[in-house]
Design goal:
Elements: H1 3-13, H2 25-39, H3 43-61, H4 71-91, H5 95-111, H6 116-131, H7 151-157, E1 158-160, E2 163-165, H8 169-177, E3 183-186, H9 194-197, H10 201-208, E4 212-217, E5 227-232, H11 233-241, E6 249-254, H12 256-259, H13 261-264, E7 284-290, E8 295-299, E9 304-311, E10 314-319, H14 324-327, E11 359-364, E12 368-372, E13 377-382, E14 386-393
Parallel strand pairs: 1-11, 2-3
Antiparallel strand pairs: 3-12, 4-5, 4-6, 6-7, 7-14, 8-13, 9-12, 9-14, 10-11, 10-13
Length: 394
């Protein structure tokens, strides 16, 4: 691999003028010190100073509400991440240094807001350099997801939603999209390369094992002990998917395909998403990957959703928006779209109106898509190791 090429590419991306809004004096001083040290060929000092910059911005980004974060600070984080990557690659090309550089890139992509093209290209280049040395899993890493779903419980809860095989755009629009009714679509993912590739976790590892992603820890984001952390996909697969911990870990609602476009090449945007009531040309695409037992508690989303099942099986319980009062949404602003009552084991003494709500259910298998109209409540539980892709659009 020609690491000089990637360093030259990063050089072209690094600005020499600093125009960041709300940049305090200490950060400006550290950033300039880092550049000055590099000019004196003191890479160790330069790297130390830029890591100080990243640490201070990290503290700033995690103080208060994310919506109040300065765009200038996020831009600076991207800049500093790019600079750190360059400094690391100038010091050595061994495997551990490359992994540190990839992590620096991912942090810039996750927390920053600029230089996305440069960071993404650098990550792809470095991941390719690692593939030849990657320790792949044993053959059993090919997922065997033949476990039956919990259909007995589902059939007790409500009626199964309609199932249709590759409806025409006209039929889907008339019978489901316009009246806002959920439907399971079969046969619409046969042309997805992911259906063949993603059941082999070695493939995921080769493509993205060294990449850092955010994961949720805990059975439900509504629980008090729920938390988040950042880990590599390799660690996630080995320690959280194949060998789950006491607390369920879930890569949930993450824009993985913006971060790792190589994986986006394995999926296709459903044509139905182009039946839009807005001017948005592309849907929001999110990844949902985890072991058996991951749960998204009963909630609703402001956009239409196609939930596409690539690996494994998921059970979904749905409620028409007209039953909102019977589901007892949380009163807190951040959880107002989430129900307090659990439809699997409802406490009717605490939530008596829930007995009036009429549910629908769906078991989603590999290669099937579920249309969930905006506003429909839904609870999602994986019955096996599962990898799903959601497409949100208006």
């Amino acid at each position: 691999m020609d690491f000089d090429y990637i360093i030259q590419h990063l050089n072209c991306s690094l600005p020499t003028q600093f125009d960041y809004s709300n940049l305090n004096n200490s950060l400006d001083f550290l950033l300039r010190e880092s550049y000055n040290a590099l000019e004196l060929n003191d890479r160790a000092t330069s790297l130390s100073k830029i890591e100080d910059v990243l640490e201070k911005i990290w503290e700033y980004l995690h103080t208060g509400s994310w919506v109040d974060v300065s765009e200038g600070m996020r831009k600076l984080y991207s800049h500093a991440s790019l600079f750190k990557t360059k400094l690391l690659l100038q010091s050595s090309y061994d495997e551990e240094v490359i992994k540190k550089a990839i992590k620096a890139i991912d942090m810039g992509l996750l927390m920053g807001n600029e230089f996305r093209e440069e960071l993404t290209k650098a990550a792809t280049f470095l991941c390719n350099a690692l593939q030849t040395n990657l320790n792949v899993l044993e053959p059993q890493a090919v997922i065997n997801n033949k476990c039956p779903s919990n259909n007995d419980i589902l059939h007790q809860i409500g009626k199964e939603i309609p199932i249709i095989n590759i409806p025409s755009l006209e039929t889907f629009f008339r019978d489901y999209f316009k009246p806002k009714l959920p439907v399971k679509i079969t046969g619409g993912m046969l042309h997805w390369p992911a259906l063949d590739k993603w059941n082999d976790l070695n493939y995921i590892l080769r493509m993205a094992g060294s990449r850092t992603v955010p994961v949720e820890i805990g059975s439900s984001y509504a629980d008090e002990d729920w938390s988040q952390t950042l880990i590599t996909i390799e660690e996630f697969i080995n320690n959280r998917v194949l060998h789950p911990k006491d607390k369920t870990t879930y890569l949930a609602q993450h824009q993985l395909f913006n971060q790792i476009p190589e994986l986006k090449d394995d999926i296709r945007i459903p044509d139905y998403c182009h039946l839009s009531e807005s001017d948005d040309s592309e849907p929001d695409i999110n990844a949902w990957f985890g072991p058996k037992g991951t749960i998204s508690p009963t909630h609703h989303d402001p956009k239409n959703n196609f939930l596409a099942q690539v690996v494994g099986t998921k059970d979904i319980i749905l409620y028409d928006p007209k039953w909102t009062e019977c589901l007892y949404p949380y009163e807190e602003k951040l959880l107002m779209n989430t129900a307090q009552v659990d439809p699997i084991k409802p406490d009717l003494s605490k939530y008596p109106k829930f007995s009036l709500a009429e549910a629908k259910h769906c078991t989603l298998h590999e290669g099937e898509m579920l249309f969930i109209p905006a506003g429909w409540w839904h609870r999602v539980e994986s019955q096996t190791i599962s990898f799903s892709v959601s497409f949100w659009w208006m």
